[in-house]
Design a protein that fits this description.
CATH class of the largest domain: Alpha Beta
Number of strands: 8
Number of domains: 2
CATH architecture of the largest domain: 3-Layer(aba) Sandwich
Distance between the termini: 56 Å
Strand content: 5-15%
Helix content: 40-55%
């Protein structure tokens, strides 16, 4: 018969083994064959005309990666609700990821279509990381940099802007790009971009709706240069509400009205940055970097 002291020793040993052995999450039903998926994430838009920008990005992505399924997600709850009332249903990034997990995807390349790495971008990164850490979930979830996520992006986008400036614009006329702007520190990227742009063309300016540089500061610069005409172009992925109202609208506080009141003739160009392949390719390249990292 085993002595009671020996039984106690064996029980203690068993407890120690159980407490020190790493736990392994169950993988019942998980497919180990890699299944890659692309999730394109944007703030969103409810304007039909602005949707052309997303159609262009979608085509470029599908042409570049025809064998990888593509999904879309809108971060804006307001935009999703507006579209739902029209019978158009878009998912949030979290719902889209949950659905892709349920479909058996193992590796997700979530490409941000934001312009700068502001609050929305960092929220996306944080929530995607949670899905990546989820037991029994994806093998990998990676988030691609926004348009101006890296120093090299500034150079590439500046060169692209120089190419897409309207052909009939004269050198003494201004080009004013409208960014969204943010209270986030990353909004300073717009100032850096204007610096690089003005090294190439001193009459190209950048301003933002919500941030720095403000339109009043740019107006002063235009007047100091005695500029009489300005082309207004969105520096946002789509020509949505900000482009159509805040930039080109007839309200007294729109950019067009503010500059017209100051004696500057305005020519709005209602075309989002995602509609220009010269700019969109930067996002596509960021996506490519993610996909190439999946082994």
């Amino acid at each position: 018969m085993v002595k009671q002291s020996t039984m106690h020793a064996l029980l203690i040993l068993l407890i120690v083994v159980l407490l020190t052995t790493p736990a392994t999450a169950g993988q019942h039903g998980r497919k180990h064959t890699m299944k890659k998926g692309i999730l394109l994430v944007t703030f969103g838009t409810s304007h039909p005309q602005a949707q052309e920008a997303f159609k262009n990005i979608d085509k470029l992505v599908r042409d570049a990666y025809p064998n990888i399924p593509v999904r879309w997600a809108y971060t804006s709850t307001i935009i999703r609700k507006k579209l739902a009332q029209k019978g158009i249903h878009l998912d949030s990034p979290e719902i889209a990821l949950a659905k892709m997990m349920d479909e058996g995807f193992t590796h997700i390349a979530a490409q941000s279509l934001h312009t700068i790495g502001g609050e929305e971008f960092h929220d996306l990164v944080r929530n995607a990381r949670a899905f990546a850490d989820m037991a029994g979930g994806f093998d990998s979830v990676l988030v691609g940099s926004p348009l101006l996520g890296e120093e090299e992006d500034l150079t590439r986008v500046v060169e692209a802007i120089i190419k897409i400036v309207p052909n009939d614009r004269k050198k003494h006329e201004a080009v004013l790009l409208m960014g969204h702007g943010s209270s986030h520190i990353s909004s300073s990227v717009y100032v850096a971009m204007m610096f690089f742009l003005q090294l190439k063309d001193p009459n190209i300016f950048v301003s933002t709706v919500n941030g720095t540089p403000p339109i009043e500061d740019i107006k002063k610069m235009l007047l100091q240069k005695n500029i009489k005409k300005a082309y207004l172009m969105p520096f946002i992925s789509v020509a949505g509400v900000h482009a159509q109202n805040d930039m080109a609208g007839d309200e007294k506080d729109s950019w067009k009205s503010i500059l017209t009141q100051a004696g500057i003739t305005c020519v709005p160009i209602l075309k989002g940055t995602a509609e220009y392949n010269e700019i969109a390719v930067v996002w596509i390249d960021h996506l490519g970097e993610l996909l190439a990292s999946f082994k």
